[in-house]
Amino acid sequence: MTVITAPLVRRMFRAEGLLRARELGIVVAIVVVFVATTINNHAFADAHSVQQLLTGASLIALLAVGETLVIVTRNVDLSVGSVVGLSAYVVGDVFVKHPHTPAFVGFVIGTLIGAVVGVINGLITTIARVPSLVVTLASLYIVRGIDARIVNGKRIDPVNVPRPFTEVGYKTVLGIPWLAVIVALVVLIVGYAMRTFRSARDLYAIGSNPEAAALAGVPAGRRIVSAFTISGALAGFGGALFLAEFATVDATGGTGYELSVIAAVVVGGVAIFGGSGTVFGAALGALLLNTINQALVASRISSFWNQAVAGALLLAAIAFDRWVGLRVARRMQTAEGAHRDV
Amino acid sequence: MPAVHELAEPRLVLEQATKSFGSVRALVDGSVTLYPGEVHALLGENGAGKSTLVKILAGVHQADSGRLLLGGEPVSFTGPAESRAAGVSIIYQEPTLFPDLTVAENIFVGRQPRKSGRRIDQGQMRRAAAEAFARLGVELDPGRPARGLSVADQQIVEIAKAISFNANVIVMDEPTAALTTVEVARLFDVTRALRSHGAAVLFISHRLEEVFAICQRVTVMRDGKFVRTAPIDELTVDDIIRAMVGRDLDELFPKSESSPAEVALQVSRLSRAGVFDDVSFSVRRGEIVALAGLVGAGRSEVARAAFGIDRRDAGEVHVDGKALPNGSPRAAMAAGVAFVPEDRRQQGLVMDMSIDHNVALPSLSRLRKGGLIRRSAERRLANDWAGRLQLRYGRMSSAVSTLSGGNQQKVVLAKWLARKPSVLIIDEPTRGIDVSTKAEVHRLLDRLVADGVAVLMISSELPEVLGMADRVLVLREGKLVAELSRAEATEDSIMRAATGQAAGVAS
């Protein structure tokens, strides 16, 4: 028996190590881009510049955490950008109408708005059995429409946003922006939970093999609704952070974020067809994309290239996953062939 | 051995279970009794009702009538979860695991051992998995992902799962079909370990030598009915084969005398790694050649490779003397080959498309004029063939999915026959269709052959093979093991060749 399995296990571990190295690979990529840019432009390594790097990646990283939960179950949430916009404006509007509202209430309201959208996305997807791509594409437009109706041509200006609230957006602790600290905490908590709780493992099971999950008695519907709810809640929370960061918002806040988020998730090694990937990878993916973005600015390369590079990176990430998959498959085949018909 | 059974209470008794799907009676009398500490073989030809019986035990299907006793208590399962909770575990031929999860998680998904704060106790989970493997005497790393596990190892994971559920009835549905010799030996060690722990094992296999190696008692089924149960040491291979196939050829197979002409399809040394190996045969115009063998022997795979759906690793295919390029169904079609696949719903038809569109699909290039498809010509073609095949339908424009199985099969035949093929490859021509339509399809095949078409037929139904084929090629585990003339072919000689009991077969 040892004869059969031991070489397989060793082979698999090498391939598996390759997959686990995904997060490490992104870290390396970030460092390479950072160092290369700094050599060209020393200002890139300034404390202020690095803070901007982190702040700029925070919001997308936060949304990528929620998106990962959804994508792991073989679904997708396209509504996150619209949720950010709606939440940011409504929270701002609360501050306009009730200037003495405590800052934390703003975050609670934002989170709740997102959670409601998430629950609706999840329920329609699971009960009506409509592909989430379509459901959340619809809610992308509907939520944006509601947002436009509420905004009605107005905008929230910095004077209307209470000081303690905006401080979250620009103050730092030990030189690290609060935004980045908050998002890092969310990433750590969710990342830990994804490894540690039955319900979170169910998400991976559902995405990995839906039929087997049903046979194993995994409550797929409930879990998928939860994943959408968390994704929505984080997007709503992200909307409040958006307001804290920019202190101004109109009807277009958060437009197009969903695509950056999905790009970050995929670059971060989350399988687009579900079943595997970590929130750590997704958050690092967001940081890598933002670092490249800023590096191009610092190197005075046209922002046109920015998007092209993001696209190329996506293709590279997918090609890498495919390559790893093929390698694993080929290894298994040769390993199987070796002890066939003994 | 028999003494043990008389002393012990049976663990599981299934009595006279019946199950029909629509008009098809899949199970007429499903009966089996399992004792603790025994490995019990369930035998029968393809379609004898074994799978239906297993699905009733699994809770996937509910019997229409009959009794199921577990430990003497009557039970009825409304779903797989209930069956599993009652201690019945099924090991399928190809288990469905979670490829992205670790082996240990696959065993414990949804019921992982936990420590404080509802957190999963990873260490405990791995230890429990390792313990289960140790009990089975198998080395498998609980921490590795399930992706890439061999089928044999996947089965072991399923068996470990069964143990972790404290299952005392374990059903193995053709577990050895995809295993190598070494893997089968390991599975048998595991099975013996289960047996020594007092589990009742129901073992389904077509390989009689395996049954004699591992089982204590045998139950034979035929045509959905219980035939007999006996201790293995009271039976010979001959007894079992006779019990499995002994039936009257009471269905009508309208086969006229054939006069084979020149070779139309020539397959030489066809190989595909791990699937089939060095398969050579020819089919002449005016004859039906049947590819027989057990499910999984590689029959469909040979046909698919010959037509070019799957690439071949070695060998050549000639049609009317012209070589076909590798992996090109288009070239095969252009050379005059038609292919009626096994699974008409998935592969043979576009279910939501109308009848006439389906019929015209492979002939579109002929119906085209200046790049546009002429609707009238399409409809004319479909009407013509619907008439010839006596298709029963409401409207030509209704979706194919509204037709009965037999009429769907006629649509598949129509779409290929409309191309006037010189070679027809047909996989399971009459699976799942009623008797009268079966006879119609058989008459149609007979007529085609009389018109000089070369037919390669794959069938799991021995009466069909015997009734229709001029020659029978028997595949076993990817190898051509026998070629039988119409005179030589009997249920007995085919089953012997297919199960590897070669005595008496001129190979």
Description:
The complex is a heterodimer of chains A (342) and B (507). With 342 residues, chain A is mainly α. Chain A has a single domain (2-341), classed as ABC transporter involved in vitamin B12 uptake, BtuC (Orthogonal Bundle), CATH 1.10.3470. Chain A has helices at 2-40, 47-72, 80-97, 103-127, 132-151, 163-170, 178-196, 198-208, 210-215, 220-246, 257-267, 279-298, 303-338; strands at residues 172-173, 176-177. In chain A, strands 1-2 form a two-stranded antiparallel ribbon. In chain A, strand 1 and strand 2 form a beta hairpin. Chain A starts with a helix and ends with a helix. Residues 1-19 and 334-342 of chain A have low confidence and may be disordered. Chain B contains 18 helices and 24 strands. By secondary structure, chain B is α/β, with parallel strands linked by helices. Chain B has a 6-stranded mixed β-sheet, sandwiched between helices. Chain B has a 6-stranded mixed β-sheet with strand order 18-21-22-15-23-24, with helices on both faces. Helices cover 34% and strands 25% of the residues of chain B. The interface between A and B is large, with 44 and 37 residues.
Provide the gyration radius of chain B in Å: 25 Å
Assembly category: heterodimer
Query: Could you give the order of the helices and strands of chain A?
Result: HHHHHHEEHHHHHHH
Largest sheet of chain A: 2 strands, antiparallel
Mean pLDDT of chain B: 87
Q: What is the CATH architecture annotation of chain A?
A: Orthogonal Bundle
Based on helices, strands and strand pairing, what is the structural class of chain B? alpha/beta
Largest sheet of chain B: 6 strands, mixed
Strand adjacency order, main sheet of chain B: 6-9-10-3-11-12
Which structural class should the secondary elements of chain A be placed in? mainly alpha
Distance between the termini of chain B: 37 Å
Highest CATH level, the class of chain A: Mainly Alpha
- Domain tally of chain A: 1
Order of strands, main sheet of chain A, comes to 1-2
Query: What percentage of amino acids of chain B are in beta strands?
Result: 25-35%
